[in-house]
Amino acid sequence: MVTVLKPGVTEEQIENLCNWFSTRGLDVHISRGHYQTIIGLIGDTKKIDTELLESLEIVEAVKTISEPFKNANRKFHPDDTVIDINGVKIGGGNFALIAGPCSVESEEQIIEVAEKVKAAGADILRGGAFKPRTSPYDFQGLKDEGIKLLLKAKQVTGLPIITEIMNANHLSLFDDVDIIQVGARNMQNFDLLKELGHTKKPILLKRGLANNLKEFLMSAEYIMAGGNENIILCERGIRTFETYTRNTLDISAVPMLHELSHLPVVVDPSHSGGMSRLVKPLSLSAAAAGADGLMIEVHNDPKNALCDGAQSLTPEQFKDVADKVRKVYEVSR
C-alpha cells in the first residue's frame, strides 16, 4: 500500500503519520519526489482503515500494490533511483560504461586494460577476482590477490571498481571495492543477498540464467529489505532453446524493468551473445532500448585470456563501441 500526500505537507505532519503507521506494526518507506511525497507501507496493511486514511487532510490518495516486490516497485518510488559511485552516476538519465577483463590475471594485465578502457571512455573498471566456473578444472580467479590488483589499477587510473562476490564469508575482502557484483548463479542465494542488505555498498545484481523478471525483482527486494537500496539491475541474457549464441539477450527486459521498478538497469552484451562480434550490435540495441549502462568485457590479448576470451573486445574495439553507444543513447532519450 502507498499513501500519496498532498503538496505542501510539512515534515512534522509526515513524521506524525509515519508514527501512526508504526504503532500499527508497519514499516514505512518515504519517497520524496519533485512534486509529491509518497509513503510506502510494508507489512500487514489490513490493519489500516483505508477510508479513514483517505479522509485525512494531508492525504491525496491511497493505492494498493499487488506485486510482492515493494521496495523495488516504481509505485513506491516514482522517480528513477540514481546510484552515485564516487561521482559516476547510473540511472535517471545518467549512462555509464563498465569495462574490463573477465578475470584479473596479473598486475600488468589489469593496469594496462584499466588505462586503455579509461582512455576509450569507460567510467568503471570491472574484473573478476573470484570466478564461478562451470568446470572445476577451469581458472577460478586470483581471489583476494585479484582484489588487491584491482585496487592497484584503481589507484593508477582513478576508476571505481566492480568485482563479483561468491560467498558472504568473503564480504570483509570487499571493503574497498566500489560496487559488489552478484552473478547470475547467485541471484537466488538468499543468505548472501540478506548479508548484502546490511551493507550500504552499491550492488550490481545479475539476472539468473532461467529467472523471470518477477523473480529477479524479488531478489533485489531481499537486499532492499535489509536496508540497502543501492541496487543496479543487470540483464545478462537468459538460457533458451537457441544454441547459436551463448545466451539470449532479453532486450524487452530493459523497458519492462523500467516500468516495474525505479532501479537503474544495465545490460551485459558480452555474456548475452558469447561472441565478440555480437557485442557491438547488442550494445547499440541496449542503448536504444533505454539501458542506463553497459557492462562489457575487454582484454588486452583476448586470444590468450584465461577466461571468456571469445566474447572479449580489444581496447580498440571497445572505443568504437563506446563512441557509437553514447550517440545512440542520446538520440533515444
Structural account:
The chain is α/β, with parallel strands linked by helices and 333 residues long. The chain is 33% helix and 18% strand. An eight-stranded parallel beta barrel has the order 7-8-9-10-11-12-13-14, surrounded by five helices. A hairpin with a 4-residue loop joins strand 2 (27-32) and strand 3. The protein is elongated, with a radius of gyration of 21 Å. The two termini are 31 Å apart.
Please report the number of helical segments. 10
Written as H for each helix and E for each strand, in order along the chain, the element string is EHEEHEEEEHEHEEHEHEHEHHEH
What is the number of E strands?
14
Low-confidence stretches: none
Overall morphology: elongated
